[in-house]
Amino acid sequence: MLISTFISKPDTVSAIMLRVLLALLPGIALYVWYYGPAILVSITLASITALATEAAMLRLRNRPLKPFLGDNSALVTAWLLALSIPPLAPWWLVVVGTAFAISVAKHLYGGLGNNPFNPSMIGYAVLIISFPSHMTHWLSPHGLGQTELGFADQLAFIFGGHLPSGIKLDAVTLATPLDTLKTQLQLDRPLKEILGMPIYGALAGKGSEVVALGYILGGVYLLFKRIITWHVPAAFLGTLFVTAGIFHLVDQAHYVAPLFHLTAGAAMLGAFFILTDPISGPTTPMGKLIFAAGAGFLTYVIRVFGGFPDGVAFATLLMNICVPLIDAHTQPPVFGKKDRGAK
Amino acid sequence: MRTLYQFHGGVHPPTNKTQSTRTPIAPAPLPGKLVIPFHQHVGNMARPLVKAGDRVLKGQLIGMPEDGVSSAVHASTSGTISSIGMEVVAHASGLPDLCAILIPDGKEEWVTHTGMDYRAAASADVRLALRLAGVVGLGGAVFPSDQKLRSGKHKIKSLVLNGAECEPYITCDDMLMRERATEIIRGAEIMRFMLDAEEVLIGIEDNKPEAIAAMRQAAAASDDKMEVIVVPTIYPSGGAKQLMRILTGIEVATGVRSTEKGLQCFNVATALGIYRALRFGEPMLSRIVTVTGNVRNAQNFEVLIGTPVNELVALADPLPDTNLYIMGGPMMGVPLPSAQVSVVKATNCIIAASDKLFPPPPPALPCIRCTRCADVCPADLQPQELFWFAQSKNFGKAQEYSLFDCIECGACNYVCPSHIPLVQYYRFAKSEIRALEHEQTAADLARERYEFRQSRIERDKQERAEKLAQKEMAARQPAATPEAAPDNSAQSHIQAAAERAREQAATARPKNIDALTPQQQAEIAEIEARRAKAREMAHPDAGRPKE
Q: Is the peptide bond before B236 cis (omega within 30 degrees of 0)?
C-alpha cells in the first residue's frame, strides 16, 4: 500500500501554476494598455499550441492526458514565451517557438519536472537565433509611433502578413529600448542625447517600464503566496544593479544608470517569473542566490557586450546548466550537524 | 520565561483532538480473547515460557527477555493459553509474528507482586526489575526503558518528559496527564534519580491547557526540580529530538546518543509505567489507546495488551463506511493489515478511516522541485533530492544526502503539491540499504570462514610434512631428544591463523553501521528477524521462483 500520510494539504501543482498565471495578469493588462490587444492574440495562440503539443507528446509517450494537461504548466510556458515575443510577430513564429519549447525542451527530457532548461527560454532562444528579424520588430507604445494599427489590422498582419496600404512595418514598430541604446552607443551618440529620444521614459523604455512594474506587482503576489522565495529576485536584481552601477560609476558617458537595467527588457519578468522556475532552478537557498546572481551578471554582460538585444534568456539558460553543480555544493547541514559545517 | 528554541520547518495539520477528549478514560471491558505477541518492543523477541493449555495469572511472565536489548511479555489477565503460534500483528510489514492466545477466565486473578524501594536497591537491580516488568517506551518507539536508565559515563543535565503529543487525533497522553499527573511525576522522580539528572523538563503543546494545569500542579508538589514547559503546537514537536531542541536548544545528531549531550527523553506514559512497575510491581499489562476518526463516540480507553482491535473499536461505535483501521496518527500511523490484530504496547491510537475522512490522494505527479518539503523538514534534509535518489535506486547518493537522518514524520508528504508518497520512498531506500549491508556482512563472514579453512588446511599440510620430516630424522638419529618443538609450532600456526581471521573480521566491518544508535541497531535486528521469519515461512514453497 503506497500510503505514508493519510492527510495532505489541499495544494496541487495545478493550483500553483494557476497562481503564476494570475500573477502575470497585471503585467499583461498594462501591456495591453500601452501596446494594444495584439499580445492577447499571441498569448492565445501560444496557449492553444502548448496544450495541443502537450497532448500530442503525452500521447506519444503513453502518458495519461488528464493529470498533465490539467497541471497548467504548459500554459505558464506558453504565456512566458508569448510575453517574450514581439506581439506583432507572425502567427507561425509563436506556434513554432511554443511547439519547440513543449516538445523538445520539455517532453524530450521527460516532461513535467524533468526539463533541465527553462522551456520558454529555449523557445525564445530558438526563435531569436532562427528568425532574428521577426524578433526585433516590437510594437511602438501607445502614442509614440507615426501611426497606430487597429485590432483588425493587427490581426490581419499577424495571420496574413498584410498591413493596410500605405503603412510600412517600420512605421508601427520600433527596436526595443535596450536595442536602441546599444546601436546608438555604437554610433557614438552621447548617452544623454540617446536617453532624450521619445522611446525612453522615466526609468527605461516608455510603456515597457510600466509593464515591468506590473510584473513586480505579480512577483510580490507570488512572494506573498510563498510560491517563490525572495532569494532569486533579490540576488538577480541586486547583482544586475550592482554590476550596472559599477560600470556606470566608472564611465557615466557610456554606461547607463543601473535602474535602467532593472526596468528595461525582461529583467523583472526574469526576476519573478523566469528564473524562479523551480524545475530548472536550484533548490537550496544558497544555491538560489548563486544561480540568480550569476544570471544577473550574465544578463548585464550579454546586454552590454553581447550581440543580442536582451540577455535574460541566455543568462537563464547558461545558469540552468550549472544547477546540478550548484545544488551539489550548497547542501545545507542537516539537523544536529550545523556546528560542524556542511556534510 | 524560559527561552524556547525552534527546529527547522514543521507543519500545522488540523489537530482533530477535541473529539476524543470530551469524556474521561474508560476501562475497556475484558475481551473474549487476547492475542499477545512476544515481540512488542525494539530488540530481541521474548522467549515464550508457556505452552498451550497452561493456566496463567494476571501479570504472570509469559515471555522472558532474551540477550541484550529485549523486554518481558506478560499475561494481561488470568486465563488459559489456548495456543502459541504465528498471528498477524499490528506492524507495518503485515507479517505474522509469534503470539500467545489467552482466553480470559474473567477472574482477573493477579500473580503475587510487590513493589521495590528503588532508592535502596542497586541500579542494575532496578533496571532488571523494569526489564522483567516489560516496561518500554510508550510514545511509539517501544524501546526498552531499562536500557535508557543507565546514568553511564555522561552527566545527564536534563531529563525531558515528552507530553507534546503533536500527532493529530491522538489524545492518550493528554488524557493521561489530565487524570494521572501525580503518578507521572512520581515516575519522573524515579527516572531523575536513576539518571542523576539535574532537572526534569516536561514539554507539552499549548493546545492541552487542562493537561498543562494538572501537570503543573503535580510537578509543584515534587521535591525535585521540575518544570512544565508549554511549547507551541507544531508538528513534529513531539519527536524526541525536536522536543529536546525546543526545550534546550541542543540538537542531537543522528548516530549520537542524547546522553552524550546530557539529555535523556521519555514519554509521559512511560513514566507512569515505570512508577507502577517499581511502586507496585505491576508489569505493563495495559495502556491508554485513543479510538477516534470515523466513529460516533471517540474516546480514550485503558486497554489490556492483546485486546483485538475490532473488539476495542466496537466500544466507540464505528460508522458503517469504515474501511480501514490505522494504528497511530494520520501523519505517521500504519494501516493495520486486519481488524483482528491486537493492541500492543506501541498502540497509542486507533483511527477508524473511511474514504470520506481520508480521501485517497490524487495520482502522484512528478516532482517539480518546489522545495516545500525542504521548507518543512524538521531534520533539515532536502527531501526532493532524497526522493530523486530513492526513485532512481541511487542508494549511495541517498546515504550521502543523509537518508538515515530522516525521522519519517511525513511533513514532506503532507505539503507535497505533487502528492508523492515521499516517506514511502525513503522507507524503501532504507530497507534496501539495510538488506544490502546484511548481504555484505554475510558475504564477509563466508569469505572469512573460507580463508580460515584454507589456512587450516595449509597448516595441517605443513604439520604433517614436519611430522614426517621429524620421523625421518628420528629414524636417522635415534639418539636425538624426543618431542622437541612440533607441538609449539602447530600451536603458533593455529594462533596466527586465528589472529589473522580476527584481524580480517575487524577490518571487514560493514560501512555505515558504526554510527547507528542502539535503537537503530535494534531496529535493524528486528527487521532482519522478520525477514528471516518471512524466509522461513516461504520455505515450504521453496520450489516457487523467487518474486
A: yes
Strands (E), B218-304: 226-231, 263-267, 286-293, 299-304
A153/A184 same-domain check: no
What average pLDDT does the structure give for chain B? Answer: 89
Name the residue range of residue A104's domain: 12-174
Binned at pLDDT 50, 70 and 90, residue B487 comes out as: low
Helix then strand count (H, E) for chain B reads: 14, 17
- CA nearest neighbour of B196 among B249, B162, B241, B159: B159
Which residue do the cell numbers 503506497 mark? A2
Total count of residues recorded for chain B: 547
Is B382 in contact with A284 (Cβ distance < 8 A)? yes
* 3 state SS of A310: coil
Dig out the grid coordinates for A233 from the structure.
529576485
Domain with CATH 3.40.50.11540 in chain B: 18-30+123-286
Q: What is the DSSP letter of A272?
A: I
Task: State whether residue B7 sits within 8 Å of chain A by CB.
Answer: yes
Architecture, CATH, for domain B18-30+123-286: 3-Layer(aba) Sandwich (3.40)
CB B44 within 8 Å of CB B70: yes
Q: Is B521 left (phi over 0), alpha (psi -120 to 50) or beta?
A: alpha
Q: How far apart are CA A79 and CA A93, in angstroms?
A: 14
- Name every residue whose Cβ is closer than 8 Å to that of residue B333 and which is 6 or more positions away in sequence: A6, B167, B326, B327, B349, B351
Q: Which residue of B has its CA nearest to A277?
A: B370
- Alpha-carbon A60 to chain mean position: 29
- Work out the minimum CA distance from A112 to partner chain B, whole angstroms: 6
- Identify the residue whose cell numbers are 516461504: B538
Q: Which of residues 310-369 of B touch A (CB under 8 A)?
A: 326, 330-333, 335, 351, 353, 358, 361-363, 365-369
Q: How many angstroms separate the CA atoms of B378 and B12, rounded? A: 13
Taking each helix axis from N to C end, the angle separating A285-305 and A177-186, rounded to the nearest 10 degrees, works out to 50
Distance of alpha carbon A232 from alpha carbon A300, whole angstroms: 16
Contact call for B423 and A4, based on CB within 8 A: yes
Given the C-alpha cell 493587427, which residue does it identify?
Answer: A154
Would the pLDDT of A340 be above 70?
no
Report the pLDDT value the prediction gives residue B524, as an integer from 0 to 100.
75
Residue A130 has pLDDT above 50, yes or no: yes
Cα(A95)–Cα(A256) distance, rounded to whole angstroms? 35
CA distance B316 to B298: 6
B245 vs A contacts (CB less than 8 Å): 335
Element (H, E) at B56: strand B55-56
CB contact under 8 A, A278 and B369: yes
* Least confident stretch, A152-156, A301-305, B389-393: A152-156
Nearest to B151 by CA among B186, B120, B194: B194
Contact across the interface for A327 and B416, Cβ inside 8 Å: no
Contacts of A327 in chain B (CB under 8 A): 385
B203 neighbors B244 (Cβ within 8 angstroms): no
d(Cα A256, Cα A250) in Å, to the nearest integer?
11
pLDDT at B527: 79
Type of residue numbered A186: Q
DSSP string computed for A170-183: HHHEE--HHHHHHH
Asked if B405 lies within 8 A of A334 by C-beta distance, the reply is yes
Among A144, A174, A204, identify where a domain stops: A174
Structural domain count, chain A? 2
